Amino acid sequence: MPDEVWRRTQLVFVCSPGNPAGNVMSLEEWRTLFELSDRHGFVIAAYECYSEIYLDEDTPPLGSLQAARRLGRDRYTNLVAFSSLSKRSNVPGMRSGFVAGDAALLARFLLYRTYHGSAMSPVVSAASIAAWSDETHVQENRRQYRAKFEAVLPILQNVLDVRAPQASFYLWAGTPGSDTAFARELYGRTGVTVLPGSLLAREAHNANPGQGRIRIALVAPLDQCVQAAERIAHFARTSI
């Protein structure tokens, strides 16, 4: 982007691991973003709710605070990271999470939340403490997602442009033609719901970055994911 745009920028929202593609920002990409923030003064809001869903148990994705520390930015200037129990512990309805980072920004955020936020009930607070304090169920969660990817990918890779993500529980699959038409016809003929990629973005500079792709969420039980993948594969082979 031109410097004129960066000079007007107040906030950059980053989702890493990303939704829908599951990409993870590298240390060099974080370095570039931090340097731009230092130069132009904007705040970086890092949404990291997929950070604990990844395929390689020995290689967790790099987080924003971790990247900042590696680069000697232990004051986390102009950086705030948001996380949640919703993906890590499969409890999206609890609306339980945290924000961490630049102490000066968090002091203002706390004041804002005092007036515009709401307190958790004691029940949700107790459940949150239990979930944040336990890693066993998180590891089991990742194991189940790995099993789904291992079962589903060979079925879909024969008919669609799709690969395993770096993190998250989505597949970001290419479609031969319109993503909206593919999703609509797939649902009509098989009952399987996927999200058209073009609905996750908007057109800019005569292009939509999600066009021609669908997001497949592997959140159902393993047998249902396999059955859905087989229906998608059959639809792709016989209808296109």
Structure description:
- The protein is α/β, with parallel strands linked by helices and 240 residues long.
- It contains 9 helices and 7 strands; from the N terminus they run H-E-H-E-H-E-H-E-H-H-H-E-H-E-E-H.
- The chain has a 4-stranded mixed sheet, sandwiched between helices. Strands 5-7-6 form a 3-stranded antiparallel sheet, with helices on one face.
- Strand 1 (11-15), helix 2 (27-40) and strand 2 (43-47) form a beta-alpha-beta unit.
- It is globular, with a radius of gyration of 20 Å.
Descriptors for this entry?
alpha/beta, 45% helix, single chain, globular, Aspartate Aminotransferase, domain 2, 240 residues
Topology:
Blueprint: H1 3-8, E1 11-15, H2 27-40, E2 43-47, H3 64-70, E3 79-84, H4 85-88, E4 97-101, H5 103-116, H6 122-132, H7 136-156, E5 170-174, H8 179-190, E6 195-196, E7 213-217, H9 222-239
Parallel strand pairs: 1-2, 2-3
Antiparallel strand pairs: 3-4, 5-7, 6-7
Pattern of helices and strands: HEHEHEHEHHHEHEEH
How many strand segments? Answer: 7
The rounded Rg comes to 20 Å
The helix tally amounts to: 9
What name goes with the CATH superfamily of the largest domain?
A: Type I PLP-dependent aspartate aminotransferase-like (Major domain)
Strand content: 5-15%
Overall mean pLDDT score?
Answer: 96
How many separate domains make up the residues? 2
Helix content: 40-55%
Per CATH, what is the topology of the largest domain? Aspartate Aminotransferase, domain 2
Supply the CATH class of the largest domain: Alpha Beta
**Structural class determined from secondary elements:** alpha/beta
Q: Order of strands side by side in the largest beta sheet?
A: 1-2-3-4
